[in-house]
Design brief:
Layout lengths: L1 E8 L3 H14 L4 E8 L2 H13 L5 E5 L13 H11 L4 E6 L4 H11 L3 E4 L5 H13 L3 E2 L1 H12 L6 H11 L15 H14 L7 H10 L4
Parallel strand pairs: 1-2, 1-3, 3-4, 4-5, 5-6
Length: 222
């Protein structure tokens, strides 16, 4: 028998219940699933620390949006995933999230390199069951939205580094250029220089931020 130790972290208990039911109903005959659950960063932290000292998790599911830890050091599923990489490097990490913006998807892949990445709006119970088995034996597994973002960025000839991608993302969220410095560690002239480069890259002839955002979105950078 294969004994599989699982952690599921989501701030909605009913969602965790759905995940558990799906995995238990679809597991293989030779699999025993032992599932721990948490609804916030504090509980997840305690479970991860305990598992690191006892039996490591084989696979961890993290929602991105979670209540922060009481000391403020852990603020999201991303933080928990990074911590897990450090203390349990062999654990498979799965990100489940409602976020479906290109910038956020690329950021998570770069920061965490998850073994599974599922957008909740893509997911059905049968896909979760399929993804679980796939991730256990032959990772990675990305849901359709994630795969499409990656295909778009690979087929684009334009190279946009992380800082430029963040500038595009913030502009698309309505952040004005004068306040970008609050979000990016660059001088105002540095930000303006990058915006000018982006407009050249995307052939923005009218010089407008709106046109830049529209072109970047069409090409999958936002």
């Amino acid at each position: 028998m294969q004994d599989i130790h699982i952690l599921m972290v989501d701030d909605h208990p009913i969602i965790i219940e759905g995940y558990q039911n799906t995995l238990m109903a679809s597991k293989k005959e030779n699999q025993i699933l032992r599932i721990d659950t948490a609804n916030d960063c504090d509980t997840a932290y305690q479970l991860l620390q305990r598992a690191a000292n006892e039996k490591h998790y084989d696979i961890c599911f993290f929602d991105i949006s979670l209540p922060s830890s009481s000391d403020g050091k852990l603020t999201s599923g991303e933080d928990l995933a990074k911590m897990t990489r450090d203390i349990m490097p062999n654990a498979k990490i799965v990100i489940l999230t409602m976020f479906n913006e290109s910038y956020r998807v690329h950021s998570i892949i770069k920061q965490i390199n998850p073994d599974g990445f599922l957008i909740k709006s893509d997911m059905t119970s049968s896909e979760l069951a399929e993804a679980f088995q796939h991730i256990l034996y032959s990772p990675p597994y990305y849901s359709s939205t994630v795969s499409n973002f990656l295909k778009k960025s690979v087929t684009n000839d334009i190279y946009v580094d992380d800082i430029n991608r963040k500038i595009l993302h913030l502009l698309s969220q309505g952040i004005r250029t004068v306040t970008l410095r609050e979000h990016i560690n660059l001088s105002m002239s540095g930000i303006e220089k990058r915006k000018k480069q982006l407009k050249l890259l995307f052939s923005v002839e009218d010089g407008k931020d709106e046109t830049l955002i529209e072109k970047a979105r069409k090409m999958g950078f936002i």
